[in-house]
Amino acid sequence: DQQVKQNSPSLSVQEGRISILNCDYTNSMFDYFLWYKKYPAEGPTFLISISSIKDKNEDGRFTVFLNKSAKHLSLHIVPSQPGDSAVYFCAASTHGSGNTGKLIFGQGTTLQVKP
Amino acid sequence: ETGVTQSPTHLIKTRGQQVTLRCSSQSGHNTVSWYQQALGQGPQFIFQYYREEENGRGNFPPRFSGLQFPNYSSELNVNALELDDSALYLCASSPETGNTQYFGPGTRLTVL
After folding, report:
1. Stretch 38-57 of chain A: residues touching chain B, C-beta under 8 Å
2. Is A43–B40 a contact, with Cβ atoms under 8 angstroms apart?
3. Between these two residues, B19 and B94, which has the higher pLDDT value?
4. Could you tell me which of B35, B14, B41, B25 has the C-alpha nearest to residue B107?
5. First and final CA of chain A: distance in angstroms?
6. Between the CA of residue A81 and those of A8, A99, B58, B98, what are the distances in Å?
7. CA gap B72, A22 in Å, rounded
8. What are the two backbone dihedrals, phi and then psi, of residue B68, each rounded to the nearest 5 degrees?
9. Which one of B33, B44, B106 has the shortest CB-CB distance to A43?
């Protein structure tokens, strides 16, 4: 039972354009969502997160949008740079003290940004 | 501030053997979670340790066990290794349970 899904295994965009990575979830108990970036031979690096009480969170070139009714979130990268080329994982959890906050990950989307 | 570190980087074992992987949490973090990442998949939660006690477990058999020490570093032990245990094992630490987790570089385990 895949509770978090990233339906696009790969995405290719031109440098300077927008990259949009999508993620769907099924468990309505999730209240905290995160995006991680992973380079080969490295562990996942935390990028940005969003609480279920918000619908948007922005950090520099990265913006995450949350649509709770659709159980969908997306990560926008503007402008995309070649160094953004990596595997991006969406993750969901139940946040806050008293919860483990264990992360349920999607399968990942490989982003390639072409110069 | 030192991030999460893991050792060893790579490990090769044969079926039936036992293995111990180690993790040092980020300074100030008291919670350590372990994940298994198979090729082409997202990481899967194995278990979490909080203040030296197991604080939640994923769908992994009892031959996967762990420890957390007073300095909050942690070990993952796997007994009776199977071929399917070949994966990248990731350790993540957080300031408290339920907080954002920060990952180490992982240990690549190959079981032959």
Report:
1. 41-46, 49
2. no
3. B19
4. B35
5. 38
6. 20, 36, 36, 32
7. 35
8. -130, 140
9. B106
* pLDDT tens digit sequence for B19-73: 999 999 998 899 999 999 999 899 999 999 998 999 889 999 999 999 999 999 9
Q: Which residues, at least 6 apart from A59, have a Cβ–Cβ distance to it below 8 Å?
A: A47, A48
* B44-to-A3, A47, A113, B31, B37 alpha-carbon distances in Å: 12, 19, 27, 17, 6
Structure-block tokens of residue B104: 């180490």
Cα-Cα end-to-end distance for chain B: 37
Contact A102 B45 (CB under 8 A): yes
Q: To which residue do tokens 């030296």 refer?
A: B52
Q: Is the peptide bond before B95 cis (omega within 30 degrees of 0)?
A: no
Pairing relation of β-strands B19-24 and B5-7? antiparallel
Unique residue bearing structure tokens 């957080």 = B94
